């Protein structure tokens, strides 16, 4: 008897012993002791039952299906094309930074930073945004001027609101201009970029709110806010797009110790807004810019002009209960000037003026996804242009040979992975995957030196000489704008 059989025999004997103890109503401690021995024997076999695992994504994260990825990649393309059109180059930075790099840059939002366990003596944190790593990159590499874009994931330990595109892991699409330039010219271009992207995505009506950090500081001073409370009060005002004034007022008074008279004065000012399309905005044809005193942008590193894009329908509404609900996704882009951030990292505090904007891709995606679902729009999840097919058996090698010809010519093609697939199955696959053409090959086509090209949509079939197949497919694909 080998070792495994011996253990199995011991398990049977131990099971009999436990059943006997239970029948004799032995003490629970004695039974538990024998059960533990039984479990230990089963563990030696490696056959112990695996605990049932609940399969889910972590809170504030999600998976993306092929259809959802196709939509998101379309949004990415619009954004990247815009960034490149404005002359930006791209960089990349680590997904985590030294904790000291991120500390003290985000004000009250610093509590949302994900800290990692000590790794080899370095205290690390997941990046909260792409702006601070960019400033560190500029200072570390002694860069005086750069126009860059960066698309990457960031992490925030926030309360997620998945239906409104607010996650703990999400992409940011950043465009920044660093360097000493004449006033407001780079700032106007950043606002123009926001306008172009939202206009090209055709998400509906939107407005770009504009304010200035120095105006806010002056407002706080006039309202009697102590200077050491400017940033913390600013953080409260920044929540006006997420909650109501009554809640913001209560936070400033109860949590931050602001005088009620000062809070009420702030309440009068932050309701002021108006149209402002002068100067560069008018020249650049940015017609949806509005000055808004309630815009605060809570991050501590902003020093000048600040802006935020909001889609129509993101207003707050009150329900019958005490809870408040925000309709829509609110801000979909935001940014501003941060002239002092690079100096926090640079030797001797050398400043490099910067201005930039960040596009909230997840929020835009949520809107695009809902829009396509409402309109029952067809979404292609593959870019295949041709399905190489055959109705006859024993044609696998010929299908592979033709597929290779198309691949070598740069045409996106695929075949069925069955040796002898049914023609109907191949037709149905092409229709389901929205593959525009089938290149059908059989014994007669080989004899005649042609390939039957079938249009999936019209079902029209045309014999094409084998030598002309590549050029014919490219011409048809180009005319169909695939």
UniProtKB/TrEMBL annotation:
- Protein's UniProt keywords contain Ligase: yes
- State the PROSITE patterns in the record: AA_TRNA_LIGASE_II, WHEP_TRS_1, WHEP_TRS_2
What range(s) does the Aminoacyl-transfer RNA synthetases class-II family profile domain occupy?
A: 60-393
Q: What is this protein called?
A: histidine--tRNA ligase
InterPro entries the record matches = aa-tRNA-synth_II, aa-tRNA-synth_II/BPL/LPL, Anticodon-bd, Anticodon-bd_dom_sf, His-tRNA-ligase, HisRS-like_core, HisRS/HisZ, HisRS_anticodon
Query: Which terms does the UniProt entry file under GO BP?
Result: histidyl-tRNA aminoacylation; mitochondrial translation
Give every WHEP-TRS domain span: 3-59
Say which domain of life the source belongs to.
Eukaryota
Q: Which family does it belong to?
A: Belongs to the class-II aminoacyl-tRNA synthetase family.
Q: Which organism is it from?
A: Stichopus japonicus
Q: Give the EC number.
A: 6.1.1.21
Q: Does the keyword Translocase apply?
A: no
